[in-house]
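Continuing from the previous page...

OK, I double-checked the sequence for PaaX family transcriptional regulator against my notes and this is the correct one:
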Amino acid sequence: MTAQTTTATTAAGERESRHAPLILTVFGLYARGEHNWLSVASVISLMADLGVESRAVRSSVSRMKRRDVLRGERHDGLAGYSLADSTLQTLAEGDVRIFQQARASRENGWVLVVFSVPESEREKRHALRTTLTRLGFGTAAAGVWIAPGHLAAETRRTLERRELSAYVDLFTGDHFAFGDLREKVRSWWDLDELTALYADFLNRYRPVLDAMTRHEPPPLEAFRTYAPMLTQWRRMPYRDPGLPLELLPPEWNGVAAGELFHRLHTLLSAPAAAHAAGVLHAQR
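Thanks. Re-ran it with the corrected sequence; updated structure tokens here:
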């Protein structure tokens, strides 16, 4: 394989990786209301509306099937895909995070995860770190991860579901002493990175909200805006676990970003769903 071919293959893989979150958003939004199934034709049509060509869609879906995110199924003789059981559970938990995210208070205390994984099981260590990062945990020390206490039950369920609980001790409690807790929070979480992520969302979608509040968006326009917007937003509630506002920098832009997301969701979700329903029914 030549260097040029290798570069082209890598670039294609990166494009497919970028498409996968958008495809998952489409399935999360519309497959669950269709008995957890979308036909191949409807997926390709919806993704074409989002500017993704069919070849890239098929390649991305194949990768998602290999990772057991999607499963191939035929309904009434039509080829299509369903969400794997584990994906359905993850999406259900994500709905709460994305659409009903709770803001912690100091009174909630903290949940601590302490783990030790044998060197012979390094893949479990990686899985633990990935899982805790996705739950929104910060790193208090080597092998000690911390999150607001209101995430304790979700953390326990997630670790058990992913068969990682055997490597973990879970504690809840208060920060009793010492030091400035606001400074500690800044060291446990990368607040600068979070601020930049929220700023990017605000810069991208404030003009969109301004434009769309002046005229009611037609279904296709709403769909083309809503699906990518939700795809960008849905990683934020996992990076930001809803830390108490008094421990965050003044005028934390995560609050404004959250308000913008919910206004766009209210404005766009129904007409976007109407467009998707028209496509799905046309492809039956």
